Amino acid sequence: MTILRVIARLLDYPTAEMQQARDDLAMAVLEDSQLKAYHKQALLRCIEVFCGDDLMDLQETYVETFDRGRALSLLLFEHVHGESRDRGQAMVDLLAQYEAAGLELDARELPDYLPLFLEYLSIRPQAEVQNWLEDIHHILGLLAERLYQRNRLHHVLFDALLALAGCEPDRQELATLVASEARDDTPEALDRVWEEEMVKFVDDQGGSCGSSGAVGQRRRELEQVQTIHLSDELMPGAKLAQAGRA
Questions:
Q1: Rounded distance, CA 121 to CA 1, Å?
Q2: Residues 6+ apart with CB under 8 A from 83
Q3: What 3-state DSSP class applies to 75?
Q4: How many domains is the chain built from?
Q5: How far is 216 from 78, CA to CA, in rounded Å?
Q6: Which residue has the higher pLDDT, 59 or 68?
Q7: Is pLDDT at 213 greater than 70 in this prediction?
Q8: For the whole model, what pTM was predicted?
Q9: What mean pLDDT is predicted for residues 28-50?
């Protein structure tokens, strides 16, 4: 499903390659038969902005949006499992599904990174895509509403995913829930998280602080989010590739 690759690319860290693919991305949206006109127009608006605005400004906005706090993390299992051990096993299981489909990841990637996951879904049968999107629709709905309330255009990408899932969340309930949440991207909130993670880091120094400390893990996650680039004829730069492809 090509439209999933378009959404994945627009959700990924902005690059010059993405901006150069502007016409191809727009054409893929126009040719899509899954979304209604309203969602297609919204995606075209995203393409116009993300491919037309100053790249450095777009990258700064992206980091401010997705890399400060965890409420808008694009790592799916962070919303489900947090820092529990279950998250690691869930990623192992998802990676096994990628490999079973004949796909492989570069060494530094996390399999639950949403743009990467959407690229995987883009090559799967329609029924499987539907099931997966339905399974994560609650996460998509929360992210859509949080982005909307923070005045981020990215919310229309999640609205499109919910439409593809065939799930219409209770918008009023979500709006009330998100409005009641404490922001985790303010300087004060970020300082509190840093202080808490430093305490954990110090406590773990006698053990495996280099690999399991919360500070180190979070830093690795943010680095990984910013360096993944999707690939196909619309999206140069291979990161998720057919196993054995030259």
A1: 8
A2: 214, 217
A3: strand
A4: 1
A5: 15
A6: 59
A7: no
A8: 0.76
A9: 97
Q: Do the beta carbons of residue 63 and residue 152 sit within 8 Å?
A: no
Q: Residues 76, 139: contact at Cβ < 8 Å?
A: yes
Can you read off the two tokens belonging to residue 3?
């439209």
- Integer Cα distance of 44 and 40 in angstroms: 6
pLDDT value at position 192? Answer: 53
Token duo for residue 244: 């054995």
Distance CA 87, CA 117 (A): 15
Q: Tell me, what amino acid is at 9? A: R
Identify the three-state secondary structure at position 152.
coil
**DSSP state string for 86-110:** HHHHHHHHHHHHHHHTTEEE-TT--
Tokens of 176: 């009330």
DSSP 181: S
Look at residue 209 in the predicted model and tell me its pLDDT: 43
Question: What residues does 236 pair with on adjacent strands?
Answer: none
CB 122 within 8 A of CB 1: yes
Note the pLDDT of residue 202: 47
User: Which among 149, 156, 166 has a CA at the least distance from the CA of 42?
Assistant: 156
Strand partners, 240: 105
Helix (H, G, I), strand (E, B) or coil at 242: strand
- H/E stretch holding 192 reads helix 187-203
The sign of the dihedral angle between the CA atoms of 122, 147, 182, 196 is positive
Q: Where are the beta strands (DSSP E) in 94-233?
A: 103-105
Q: Which domain, by its residues, includes 79?
A: 2-242
